[in-house]
Write a structure and sequence with these properties.
- Helices cover 48% and strands 16% of the residues.
- By secondary structure, it is α/β, with parallel strands linked by helices.
- The protein folds into two domains: 5-283, Rossmann fold, CATH 3.40.50; 332-482, Isoleucyl-tRNA Synthetase, Domain 1.
- Strands 3-2-1-12-13-7 form a six-stranded parallel sheet, sandwiched between helices. It has a four-stranded antiparallel sheet with strand order 5-4-6-8. A three-stranded antiparallel sheet has the order 9-11-10.
- The chain starts with a strand and ends in a 38-residue tail after the last helix.
- Bound molecules: ligand ME8.
Length: 503
């Protein structure tokens, strides 16, 4: 993943409903990755958007007494608004009802058809509108989909995609590209699904109209997943332009891994288009131990959450709380706990203490009079940790571990404050105090650089208070070569991570 061009995508979200915390989670993870790659010097393209066709959207529009297009417009806007509310730096937002997408999706269909992988027949079997997925009789549990969704019997003429022709090619591809599916545990699921035998996939519907017409046969609309998956290339301008393809990483929830790791690569092989480099399937959030669902009335509104706790705080909590890939549980108490102990007490308090001492005791000017061993140790701890953090993010998307390591740098710096007692040095040895405070400021600069992708507002504030110029904020500038210059005057300090007090 070390190419200088970096293309990252979120799933495109269904517009049958409003965004909730699960959608916010995936999008924030992608934003962190995109922001990190930018400060790492890559040329980044970050795509998100909305999935607007299919029976599910058509039915929810009808339930809300509106047309599918109006319903899509309203709900797509909510997903769009969420980006600003979470400080997301996407470069593009695709809607599958846009002309650029429809044309690209039809061109993709034609490419697959031309290569001989589409044929006409008829489908009879089970379909779940909630999952927008076909199920085999044998997969059903008590008459429902394995996801718990209702299924209905469908019988209609249909075009089929020759998925069965790709079983060996897929297995070979997984074998040759061990980093393709992550995390490791999920890979086995996919392998056993593919090894179990692939059946041809119905890829068109005739019993409703809300979709992209099949080229040359307007009685059919394309199966919503074939339509939706192509967004990753239609947004780039397929079939005319595919700059940035193949994607460096598609980040998705585990619920839709099969679509991304089996169907999507097979479609691409069939169309003669290169395959993405990596699919990361993250885990599932519950709310205070319960499945998040509208019928249970426990959906967490990400707008309200960011409003109450702060954007950085929500971003931090979601990334820190569960190792990326695992399932996890949301609770207010845990959020407040982490905000107060890890952000406010550890990092925020460190910045506050150091910057106000520099302000009060050094007239706001950085001074340095020769390092002691303990100073060098602290700075090299931060330097060595920075590399580990980069590895966790770039190669493993292990965001919680990266944050844990940033927290360790702050803890080390707090221990250093306790050991050096700069407030005592003020009278005893003012020159030594200056160097101690300089060392801490330099350590804070490193923490600030590392925090940028995760908590961009607080990191910006911190780096501003250290008078670090915008163009001095790249990852490779973390070392001594770009250290703070003695003699620099710092602006008046202000808090970066306030404590949250429950009313
Ligand atoms: O599946 N925990 O859209 P969708 C974690 N349109 N993540 C969650 C979550 C939860 N409780 N709930 C939702 C679709 N997500 C298709 C995708 S892509 C070509 C088409 C996140 O609106 C997670 O990323 O149902 C999941 O994969 C996605 O939202 C599903 O969003």
């Amino acid at each position: 993943m070390e190419e200088r061009k970096f293309y990252i995508t979120t799933p495109i979200y269904y517009v049958n409903d409003r965004p909730h915390i699960g959608h916010a989670y995936t999008t924030i993870a992608c934003d962190i990755m995109a922001r990190f790659m930018r400060i790492d010097g890559a040329q980044v393209k970050f795509l998100t958007g909305t999935d607007e066709h299919g029976q599910k959207v058509e039915q929810s529009a009808a339930k809300n007494n509106t047309t599918p297009q109006e319903w899509a417009d309203t709900n797509s806007q909510h997903f769009h608004d969420l980006l600003a509310a979470l400080n997301i730096t996407n470069d593009d937002f695709i809607r599958t009802t846009e002309e650029r997408h429809k044309q690209g999706a039809q061109a993709f269909w034609k490419a697959i058809e031309k290569n001989g992988y589409i044929y006409k027949d008829s489908y009879s079997g089970w379909y779940s509108v909630r999952d927008e997925a076909y199920y085999q009789e044998a997969e059903l549990i008590d008459g429902k989909a394995p996801t718990g969704a209702d299924v209905e019997w469908v019988e209609e003429p249909s075009y089929f995609f020759k998925l069965s022709a790709f079983q060996d090619a897929l297995l070979e591809f997984y074998e040759e590209n061990p980093a393709f599916i992550a995390p490791e545990g999920r890979k086995n699921e996919v392998l056993s699904f593919v090894k179990g035998g692939l059946k041809d996939l119905s890829v068109s519907r005739t019993t409703f109209k809300w979709g992209i017409p099949v080229p040359g046969d307007e009685e059919h609309v394309m199966y919503v997943w074939l339509d939706a998956l192509t967004n990753y290339i239609t947004a780039l301008g397929y079939p005319f332009k595919t700059d940035f393809w193949p994607a460096s990483i598609h980040i998705v929830g585990k619920d839709i891994l099969r679509f991304h790791a089996v169907y999507w690569p097979a479609f691409l092989m069939a169309a003669g288009v290169e395959l993405p480099k990596r699919i990361f399937a993250h885990g599932w959030w519950t709310n205070e131990g319960q499945k998040i669902s509208k019928s249970l009335g426990n959906v967490i509104d990400p707008f309200a959450l960011a409003e109450e706790f702060g954007i950085d705080q929500v971003r931090y909590f979601l990334m820190r709380e569960i190792p990326f890939g695992n399932d996890g549980d949301f609770s207010r108490e845990k959020l407040i706990g982490r905000v107060n102990s890890e952000l406010a007490n550890n990092i925020g308090n460190l910045a506050q203490r150091v910057l106000s001492m520099i302000n009060k005791n050094c007239g706001g000017v950085l001074k340095k009079n020769g390092f002691h061993e303990i100073d060098k140790k602290l700075l090299s701890f931060a330097f060595v940790h920075a590399d580990k953090i980069r590895n966790e993010i770039v190669y493993h998307q292990h965001f919680s571990r990266a944050l844990e390591l940033i927290g360790q740098i702050a803890s080390r710096a707090n221990e250093y404050v306790d050991a050096t007692e700069p407030w005592k040095l003020k009278k005893e040895d003012p020159e030594r105090m200056e160097t101690v405070l300089y060392t801490l400021a330099e350590c804070l600069r490193r923490i600030g650089l590392l925090l940028q992708p995760f908590t961009p507002q607080a990191a910006d504030k911190l780096l501003n208070q250290l008078a670090v110029a915008q163009e001095q904020r790249l990852f490779h500038m973390i070392g001594a070569g770009n250290a703070l210059k003695p003699g620099t005057e710092l602006p008046a300090p202000e808090g970066i991570f306030p404590r949250f007090e429950e009313e």
